[in-house]
Design goal:
The protein is built from 17 helices and 20 strands. By secondary structure, it is α+β, with helices and mostly antiparallel strands.
Length: 519
Amino acid sequence: MGGQPIFILSDDSSRTQGRDAQSSNIAAGKAVAEAVRTTLGPRGMDKMLVDNSGEVVITNDGATILNEMDIEHPAAQMIVEVAQTQEDEVGDGTTTAAVLAGQLLAQAEDLLEDDVHPTTIVEGYHEAAGIAQQAIVEATLDEELDAEHLKAVAESSMTGKGTGDVSAERLAELVVETIEGVRTDEGIARDEIRVQTQVGGSSSGTKLVEGVIVDEEPANDDMPRSVEDATVAVLDMELGVREASIDAEYNITDIEQLNAAIEAEEGELRGYTEALSEAGVDVAFVTDDVEDRVASALADAGILAFENVGNKDARAIARAVGAKRIGTLEDLDTDDFGYAESISVEKYGDDEFAFVEGGAEAEAVTLFVRGGTEHVVDELERAVTDAIDVVTAALDSGGIVPGAGATEIAIAERVRSEAAGVSGRKQLAVEAFADAVEVLPRTLARNTGMDPIDALVDLRAEYDSTGSAGIISKGQTGEVGDPIEEGIFDPAAVKREAVESATEAATMIVRIDDIIAAD
């Protein structure tokens, strides 16, 4: 071959290898983590995100921030996936997972500079993660969760988030009531919980409705606005003149034929009302159009009807009231219908909502979230959704652990104590994992106005003395205290998932030493 070079990549490709590739990936991961780090804790700050069209999102929710950011670097995208996995699995702890992943990368960078092989770092991190999981199990409170515990978990998840003029404590009470409404012997029926938002009014107007709320208005203004003891039909059909399935032309030669055609059409339209009325239906939710003449006739018959109801809402209503979804009005049976104690139409500003309460079958519940502006409502919705998810995780997925950074201190101390038994350079990676975990209480301390180094020293001393130490926000600053006494708790599942997902992402990035990209 005469020593001539062989080109296997196109001219449009770029390649980064070795330490440069590792440095690029680690820097990208750290940058993403730093972007959300200041949002952590009860005194975390918000981020304003503006897209190309000028739409603004204001939030301190980690998952929302990372999803809204226009991130191109593939390693940074992996940190975003960490947050998304955390959100999908347990509904909270996204910032914790992202910050931990970033710090694991920062520690790995120092080890790489000391010539520790990436595989050694990966092995050490995985061993440390196993020790961390054991520490979480040991930190889990060995007692039955009561309403006060659940309120504390919900409030902890919402502390620091924008909740308008309603306190996190009040929202936590509503969240626990919501959970209790769908709690069964088999667990929490999470699918039976809905969050409905409405801009306008005070956030303190947020309330729990034992039923389903849909953003719908009556098909006719003359229909009743409220129905008690309602027999409910959910119709997957159009209430209008049926069109022929084939192309056809009709030749009408005289007025009698025209009158007959009109009468046939009117008869078909009357038939809808007669069928529903004779079957005893009080309220109909229709997923397709309701022709104006049919809507008028239904109003005359005292039947409340809603048209073009979305499939998701129709499914929720049918499940709540115990109705079948009907595709034809022929051979109706009482078993096809559902029941609700009351269905009412309420107006908020220019919008109308149908409240379906006291359904016969499912214990469906809805949190009706109010707020003065769209930004307030959006953030409030994210806050209560996270709170619902963490309470569900606490009940269904393994209990609660002390919050305020106390569990991370326990993890770090346990990992360090076990590191002495790890041989070779892998011990350095295990110790680095412990240092990385402590970024979370350090960040909490910084965000509450404390000196992070002094706070960490005090936390370690308090933990050695009492076995429980966290950063407790007090006024304009914070102090080291016992989060159990303060009623600050997190679901154990959130900690387990954060450790697992952050470790997986960090180790995957550390192992990459070659980046080939198409320009």
